[in-house]
Amino acid sequence: IYRYVNKQVQYQNIDYLFFFFKQKTAYEMLRSLVGSEMCIRDRYMGEEYVPIDVVAAYSELQEDIKQFGENDSFSSLTPQFNGKSPDDAFSSVPYEKGYHYLKYIESIIGVEDFKGIVQSWIANNAYKTVVADDFKAHLKTEFFKRQGPKGLFKFYTKLNWNTWLYKPGEPSVKALTESEQIIDAKKLAQEYLNLKGEASPENYNRFRNFFVRAQAITINYFLENKQNLTLELVKRFEADFSDLLTNIRQCELINRFLRLCIVTKYTERYDLLVKYMGSIGRMRYVTPVFVELKENDMLDFAWEIYRQHESFYHPIARKTFQTCLLYTSDAADDLLCVDLGGRRIIKKK
Description:
By secondary structure, the protein is an all-alpha fold. It has helices at residues 19-29, 37-45, 49-68, 93-109, 111-124, 132-159, 161-166, 180-195, 212-224, 231-245, 251-263, 270-277, 283-295, 299-309, 315-325; strands spanning 2-5, 8-11.
């Protein structure tokens, strides 16, 4: 939220935190809402898919929190802008961390009661502007109706409103569940790691039967065990599933595969990397690749790719990519003082 004061933009924390409720309630909590993205997802893909999607999304949340820093307010549900643009806080945090908080509240209240409370909230506040404290008051009123003063007291002792909304870092309670496919996706990755690229695991083609998000979990497992990755393993994995891993339209997989290529210095795939980075503009699929390049001492190459495709990226994406590639945060606001590798230029007097 921002306002103009004396022709200057001032950013305020006017319930940015409530963004997570508006997004995740419609998508995750009320599956009866006609037309909601997640309602369609659940009915088409089935309940088996939901925990897979949540686990894969949590990995993305962890990456965003790592980028901001565990103690940075941008990794909380109430980011403090302090003169910075709200665009700088754009990430999966309000979506995913907010989702885990809503699931936590649901676990306290009960699925059916929570569903009724949220439905009455929507009915009472249709076409209105609301803030987070309004929802907190609604929870209090509706919970009191259902369970009385004793139940309300127990509810408030467990709600942890301020901790969830203001504390940075990962959520204190995670709504993560393991499914058979999640377990098998990780198991397959470990089988590849054990073989070190010398052969493919037995029944390796079961990977093709996984949901795409479960396939992403397999690759995430590799990325979580970078110390055990080898170039031979990555080449073996690619040989088994080249049609999936090198398909630019399959962003969930190719962005992760390219990160494997960066880690193992798979130089034959760098041309594909450059092409991909100029074909996809969505930050969730591009930022992790830039970060991987930076973390693997390939900052000059990262800046070369960025400059080549800069005009293709959305202005918000440009700023995000610039910031994640710069060595120093103060340099992010003064690109003229930064060379191609992101290093600070010291001008001689």
